[in-house]
Design a protein that fits this description.
Layout lengths: L8 H10 L6 E12 L10 H15 L10 H8 L2 E11 L7 H17 L5 H7 L4 H15 L7 E10 L4
Antiparallel strand pairs: 1-3, 2-3
C-alpha cells in the first residue's frame, strides 16, 4: 500500500504498463480510507468520523488521493491492462468482528492506528487545515478514546487489483 506517498496514480499505472513485458502481470493493493460501519454505530457526529472526513479533505487539498483503492481497477484499465481482477476486503478498526480472521485483522489495524495517529495526522492537519498542534492533539486523544469503545464498529476497505499487459 502506497496511500499518501503517490501523487499521480494514473501516471504510476502508465509507467507500470510501459515497463511490464507483454504477458506480465501487475498488482496494486491500497485502501479506501472512508470509515463506515456495518450497523450504523459510527455516526457523522463521532470524532472518528469527523477526523476521517477531515483527513480525506486535507489529503485532497494536498493533491493526494486518500482513497486510491476505489480507483485502482479503472486506472489499470485506462493504462491499457487487460484481464483485470478487483476485490474489496473489510478492514475492521478493533476486535469487534465475530469472524476470527477479521478479529485479528481488526486488532492489527487498531494497533497501527493507535501507534501512528499523530504521524499521519500532524502534517496534513497543520499545513492544510490550519490547525494548531494542540488542536490536533485533542483530536487524536478523542479518536483514541472513541475507538477503544467496543460498541463502535468502524471499518474501511482494502482493495486489490491486478491485471495483465496484453501480448504484443
Amino acid at each position: 500500500m502506497m496511500g499518501n506517498a503517490i501523487k499521480d496514480w494514473p501516471r504510476l499505472n502508465q509507467q507500470c504498463f510501459q515497463h511490464t513485458k507483454p504477458g506480465g502481470w501487475v498488482e496494486f493493493i491500497d485502501l479506501d480510507l472512508t470509515w463506515t460501519s456495518p450497523d450504523g454505530s459510527l455516526e457523522e457526529s463521532h470524532a472518528s468520523k469527523k477526523f476521517n472526513n477531515a483527513f480525506i479533505k486535507a489529503s485532497r487539498e494536498a493533491n493526494i488521493e486518500a482513497c486510491p483503492g476505489l480507483y485502482l481497477e479503472g486506472w489499470m484499465r485506462d493504462a491499457g491492462f487487460a484481464n483485470i481482477h478487483a476485490e474489496k476486503f473489510v478492514w475492521p478498526v478493533g476486535t469487534w468482528p465475530k469472524d476470527k480472521h477479521l478479529k485479528e485483522v481488526g486488532a492489527w489495524n487498531y494497533l497501527q492506528i493507535m501507534e501512528g495517529l499523530e504521524a499521519f495526522t500532524f502534517a496534513l492537519f497543520t499545513r492544510h487545515l490550519g490547525m494548531s498542534k494542540a488542536e490536533v492533539e485533542v483530536i487524536c486523544a478523542n479518536i483514541r478514546k472513541e475507538i477503544k469503545d467496543p460498541k463502535m464498529h468502524a471499518m474501511f476497505h482494502l482493495h486489490v487489483a491486478y491485471g495483465q499487459k496484453p501480448e504484443a
